[in-house]
Amino acid sequence: MLVDDAIDRVRVEVLATRLGVTRGSFYWHFRDREDLLRAVLQAWREQTTDSLTLRLEGASRDPRTQLRDLMSLPQRGSAARRLARIEMAIREWARRDDMARLAVEAADASRMGYIAQVYTALGWGIAQARARAFLLYAYNQGQALMPEQGSAAQGAERLRLIEELLTQSPPR
Predict the structure, then answer these.
(1) How many CB atoms lie within 10 A of CB 29?
(2) Is the pTM higher than 0.85?
(3) Owning domain of residue 40
(4) Considering the domain boundaries, does residue 10 fall inside one?
(5) Tens digit of pLDDT at every position of the chain (172 positions)
(6) How far apart (Å, rounded) are the C-alpha atoms in residues 92 and 100?
(7) How many domains does the chain have?
(8) If you count DSSP H runs as helices and E runs as strands, how many of each does the chain have, helices first?
(9) What is the CATH number of the domain that holds 116?
(10) Is the Cβ–Cβ distance between 23 and 12 less than 8 Å?
(11) 8 Å CB contact between 111 and 49
């Protein structure tokens, strides 16, 4: 509902009807709508930030491999497109709601913090690591916003270029 109808349509009555449950059943799980919305933001954070970071860290210890894995996230098919739609809906919600805005800001800080740590492991100083983390993160957000931009070959070329630019070691 958040993706298809925006946050204003995420209402107890509408949810209960759509799910075929009573309002009482809803209140068995959540104190109120605000509690539901907090749970939505928490689930989003756990899935798209905390769990993802752990999965990427566990997949490889090599910083370049971690960076390449990060860069490829927006190109990972229907799952990536689905997560991008959720991300966009939450970011739209955050434009008008302080609770959502704070959740998005915390997720962004955590994600870029992780990326910066990968860059420091590659040998970059903290200022350069943070700047490169921002660039990589902005690339991923842009790719998620425009998944159909250009042909598959153009997308592959963009990815190749971003990998070339952002997986370099610092000069010695």
Answers:
(1) 10
(2) yes
(3) 2-166
(4) yes
(5) 888 888 888 888 888 888 888 888 888 889 999 999 999 999 999 999 999 899 988 888 999 999 999 998 888 778 888 888 999 999 999 999 999 999 999 999 999 999 999 999 999 999 999 999 999 999 999 988 887 788 888 888 988 999 999 999 898 8
(6) 9
(7) 1
(8) 10, 0
(9) 1.10.357.10
(10) yes
(11) yes
